[in-house]
């Protein structure tokens, strides 16, 4: 932790009066939980805040308290400070560029190792399990109480990016933070249910289709599935309905890299990558203009579905081959287990 930068941020939050908070496009639980927790803390301090995300709140996070305060567009002409949380690149910021440009000061708080530190103050800590962990440390330095609202927001953030405290980035530090948040009013059962267990009928159908299309290569070390546009159109599904599907792909026994391809309606293909702790899939994502974490990353390719599948799988095969010989399979769909 950079103590000097953190103290500067604490000072700014205490001295300034108006704040514009934002995060990344297509926000997840870490993004939503982090930005709402910091908003709640600033409101306790008597500050004026607007939270903006042009993509709104995903259904997955609709249970998070105060999410109704997230706006699609800012209503204030300008703010003293623009805070950008959990966002690894300028092209992924979910607020109008002119709104942030109008701020006197801009601050980035992020934990992505691919983060681009280009604000006036940058707190980037890739050792943190989630941006919510950094916001937790920040709020503890502010003259506020971590109440049930803040605790729920922060626990949501931590649980999201650690996969319910199951991923390899689950550290003693994040578990200690989670324990305090439970003491402060976060409900682990409720939050875990909403994040990882509750699914709509459409989402359940999409999951079934994705699993029925599983394919493997590299002796079972590479597993992937492809969801085309026609499948989404037939079910009238959207991005919310594929949340966490890639984790089921990665969870196939023997898989070391799991990939989910989803054809969008904007001429781009969304690629989600997951790995065990041996492989850094964020490096693959970065090669295609994306980013993320060692065990969880993603990118979007402006190309055909077939080309995206071929290019990303080729790179994944290279990564696995560099680690030793494998026994390639014939790229046939898996026989589903009963």
- The CATH class name of the largest domain reads Alpha Beta
Record field, number of beta strands: 12
How far apart the termini lie comes to 48 Å
* Category by helix and strand content: alpha/beta
* Fraction in helix: 25-40%
CATH topology of the largest domain: inorganic pyrophosphatase (n-terminal core)
Question: In what order do the strands lie side by side in the largest sheet?
Answer: 3-2-1-4-5-6
Low-confidence stretches: 325-338
Question: Which H/E pattern describes the elements?
Answer: HEHEEEHEEHHHHHEEHHEEHEEH
Named at the architecture level, the CATH assignment of the largest domain is Alpha-Beta Complex
Largest sheet: 6 strands, parallel
Structure overview:
With 338 residues, the protein is an alpha/beta fold. The chain folds into two domains: 3-197, Alpha-Beta Complex (inorganic pyrophosphatase (n-terminal core)); 201-321, Diaminopimelate Epimerase, Chain A, domain 1, CATH 3.10.310. The protein has twelve helices and twelve strands. It has helices at 3-15, 29-44, 97-101, 131-139, 148-161, 172-183, 188-197, 201-212, 229-235, 245-250, 281-287, 305-321, and strands at 18-22, 48-52, 70-71, 81-85, 105-110, 121-124, 215-217, 222-227, 257-263, 269-275, 291-292, 296-301. The strands form two sheets. It has a six-stranded parallel β-sheet. It has a six-stranded mixed β-sheet with strand order 7-8-9-10-12-11, sandwiched between helices. A hairpin with a 3-residue loop joins β11 (291-292) and β12. α2 (29-44) runs parallel beside α4, α2 runs antiparallel to α5 (148-161) and α4 packs antiparallel against α5 (148-161). The chain is globular and about 55 Å long.
